[in-house]
Amino acid sequence: MSDEADRDAINHPLITLTGLLIEAESSLFARVSATIRSAGIATDAFEVLLRLSRSPHGRLRMSELSRQLTITTGGASRMIERLERDGLVSRVPSTSDRRVVYAEVTETGRAELARVIGPHLDDLRDIFTVRLRPDLVADLERGLRALRDALLEYPQPGEQPDDEGDADATGEPSASATEPAAGEE
After folding, report:
1. Where are the alpha helices (DSSP H) in 39-165?
2. How is domain 3-152 classified at the CATH fold level?
3. Taking the model in full, what pTM does it have?
4. How many CB atoms neighbour CB 79 within 10 A?
5. Which residue has the higher pLDDT, 162 or 159?
């Protein structure tokens, strides 16, 4: 590549867009993590409790939880082990498929989430409703949903498709905690 082509590539609008997204995510994560930690809970534990609590029956397949958290299934298992020791979650085997194990939020986990969610929501209100116009927040949500869905449509390099199927223990399709609740979108 020539120097001019290098400069064009370096200044490409998609490079800028990706950089802005990464900078915004890093700043947002640092801020909300500080708020969550100051409430006395680890950020990863909070995220697990939130995702489980937003899921049908308060549970997700371990494979789905690891996908949503973008960590390995082994990493998710270790995290759930720690949270299980603290009484915040439990492992529940599927009644219809021995290969499937769910992570399920406990009442103690729900109480811990309820204790921390107020300061977290106050922080998010400051970020998204005080600092940004409602139309920008709506556009951002639409754009991020579209980006997430486009990225999830195909396995990432080196990733194997999930062979556990798409039904939960009741045979119903599993739902993602990141999907909008009924009436949203």
Report:
1. 43-53, 62-69, 73-85, 107-125, 134-152
2. Arc Repressor Mutant, subunit A (1.10.10)
3. 0.74
4. 21
5. 159
